[in-house]
Amino acid sequence: MTTYDPDNIFARILRDEIPSDRVYEDPEFIAFRDITPSAPTHVVLIPRGQPPTGPAALEDSDAPLIGRMILTAKQIATQLDLDEAGYRLVFNNGPDAGQTVFHIHLHILGGKQLGPVA
Ligand code: AMP
Question: Which helix (H) or strand (E) holds 70?
Fold first, then answer.
């Protein structure tokens, strides 16, 4: 199991050690534009603090956190005017999914007709 690295990129963004283009903040989450966007709108939503490293690290007790992440992503999608045309929510886990940052995060993608999931 990957252990949480307190110096991972998203932890550093949370501490404002690395700049980010934030589109949303609340006491539990922040969301910012992905530095290498895969779609015209590509936002990454992350919990504050030291959350699980990714989906594989989740425990039953994290169910409310994940529920709130998805509901918050829905709210951000509406804020960014993606709700009418549609959008995609993605959690990556591990090497085959291309996970590069081990601080759980939810990608919000939209702004064009997206291709197949993989
Ligand atoms: P994943 O591949 O699921 O681990 O997603 C990590 C995402 O973080 C990738 O899409 C990266 O482009 C994005 N990313 C990495 N560094 C930054 C940064 N400094 N600001 C914004 N997004 C970043």
Answer: helix 63-79
